[in-house]
Design a protein that fits this description.
This protein has 374 residues and is mainly α. The protein is built from 18 helices and 4 strands.
Length: 374
C-alpha cells in the first residue's frame, strides 16, 4: 500500500490531518474578522471553500479516528487490540486537553475588551470575554469538552471520547456515520486499492476532485445559516452526511492515489500532521489574544493581519507543546498499553500505577526539545 509502513501507519494520512488542522485555523480566523455576509457567501461558493470548511475538517478527524480504530484492532488480537487502542487514545487526548485548558484559562486573564474600532464579529467577542471561575474550571478538567466556552474546540474531544466509550448518546448518534465510514474504509482497503489501481492517473485525479467537491458541497450549495455575524454550516443531517462521505473519499484517495499520497507525504505537510492536535488545541487562544490587533482596512488586509500571525504563532507554540506535552503522553500510553514488565519478584507487574509511573519516567527521558529533532 502506498505510503504505508510496517507498523500500519500511513504517512499521507498524517499529512492529511495536518491539512485539516490548518483548515480549522483558516476558518476560525475567517469567522473572527467582520465582513459583509455577501463576502462570506462568495468565499464559500468559490474554490476557497476547500480551505474554509472547518466543520468538514472536524468530520475528517472523526473518520480518521474510525480508520485508526479499525487498524489498531486488526493489528491487535480482538478485545486486547481494542483495549490497547482505547488506552492509547485516552492518553493521547486527555493529558494534552488538561494542559491546554489550564493554559487557556491562564491566558484568559489577559483577555481585554476589544475596542469598537477593531473589525471583529460578535462570534469572536462571545469567546473573548470568557474567564471561568474555579468552581467551573475544576469539573471541566475531569472530562474533555468545551469547558463552558473556555476551550471551545473541546466539543470535538467530547464527541470522540463519548463515541469511544459510548457514554453520551447525543454526539454518538450525530457523528456515528463518520466513525463507521472510517472503519468501513479500513476493512475494505484492499478491495478499494485494487479498484483504484485499475483506474488511469487522469481518472484518479478526477475522483480526487469529485471527493473534494463532495466534501465542500454544503458550502457550495449555500446551506450556511447566518449567526452571530458569521455563516454557520454543517450541523443538519444532509450536510453531515455529505461532508462525511467526502471525508472518507479523501482518506481513501490519500492512501491509494499515488500523486495525492506523495503530496501529503512531503515532510513539511507531515510535520503539520504530527503537531495537528496541538495546533487544534492552542490556536483558538492565540486567536483571541491577537484579535485586538486586527487592522481596520480591506477585508483581505484585516483577515491576513489576523490569520498570518495566528497561524505562525500557533505552529511555533504547537511544536513545543507537542514535544513537552503531547509526545510524552503518547509514549506513556504506548507503554501502559504494552504487555506487563517484570517486577522485582520476577513476575510481570501489570498494575496500572506501576506502568503509568514507568511510562511517564520513560517518556520524559526520551523527550526531544522539538518534535523534528532526531
Amino acid at each position: 500500500m502506498a505510503g504505508e509502513q510496517s507498523s500500519g501507519r500511513v504517512v499521507a494520512l498524517e499529512g492529511l490531518r495536518g491539512v485539516a488542522a490548518v483548515t480549522v485555523v483558516l476558518r476560525h480566523t475567517f469567522n473572527a474578522v467582520a465582513m459583509p455576509l455577501s463576502v462570506r457567501e462568495a468565499a464559500f461558493q468559490s474554490p476557497l471553500a476547500l480551505l474554509l470548511n472547518g466543520q468538514g475538517a472536524v468530520q475528517l478527524f472523526f473518520v480518521l479516528s474510525g480508520y485508526v480504530l479499525a487498524g489498531s484492532v486488526a493489528r491487535g488480537s480482538g478485545p486486547v487490540g481494542l483495549s490497547q487502542f482505547l488506552i492509547k487514545r485516552v492518553f493521547r487526548i486527555y493529558p494534552p486537553y488538561v494542559i491546554a485548558l489550564l493554559l487557556t484559562w491562564a491566558a484568559s486573564f489577559l483577555y481585554v475588551v476589544v475596542p469598537a474600532s477593531v473589525p471583529v464579529t460578535r462570534w469572536y467577542l462571545t469567546y473573548a470575554q470568557v474567564h471561568l471561575p474555579v468552581d467551573q474550571l475544576l469539573p471541566s478538567l475531569l472530562f474533555p469538552g468545551p469547558s463552558y466556552l473556555q476551550l471551545p474546540v473541546g466539543w470535538t474531544l467530547r464527541v470522540e471520547t463519548a463515541w469511544l466509550l459510548v457514554i453520551d448518546a447525543g454526539p454518538v448518534l450525530r457523528y456515528s456515520l463518520d466513525f463507521c465510514l472510517g472503519i468501513a474504509a479500513y476493512l475494505e482497503r484492499e478491495r478499494l486499492a485494487a479498484w483504484i489501481g485499475r483506474v488511469t492517473a487522469r481518472w484518479q485525479l478526477a475522483l480526487v476532485a469529485g471527493a473534494a467537491a463532495l466534501f465542500v458541497s454544503p458550502l457550495l450549495l449555500g446551506w450556511s445559516v447566518p449567526r452571530a455575524g458569521i455563516l454557520m454550516n454543517g450541523f443538519d443531517r444532509s450536510s453531515l452526511a455529505l461532508m462525511g462521505l467526502g471525508s472518507v473519499a479523501l482518506i481513501v484517495f490519500a492512501v491509494h492515489v499515488p500523486m495525492l499520497n506523495r503530496w501529503l507525504s512531503v515532510r513539511p505537510v507531515v510535520f503539520l500532521g504530527k503537531i495537528s492536535y496541538s495546533v487544534y488545541l492552542l490556536h483558538f487562544t492565540v486567536m483571541i489574544l491577537w484579535g485586538r490587533w486586527v487592522i481596520d482596512a480591506s477585508v483581505a488586509a484585516s483577515y491576513l493581519s489576523l490569520m498570518g500571525p495566528v497561524m505562525a504563532i500557533s505552529i511555533l507554540l504547537s511544536a513545543a507543546f507537542y514535544s513537552w506535552v503531547e509526545r510524552p503522553a503518547v509514549l506513556a500510553g504506548n507503554r501502559v498499553s504494552s504487555p506487563g514488565t517484570a517486577s522485582a519478584s520476577g513476575w510481570p507487574d501489570t498494575s496500572l500505577s506501576h506502568r503509568c509511573s514507568r511510562s511517564f519516567r520513560g517518556a520524559r527521558r526520551s523527550m526531544p526539545l522539538f518534535p523534528f529533532t532526531p
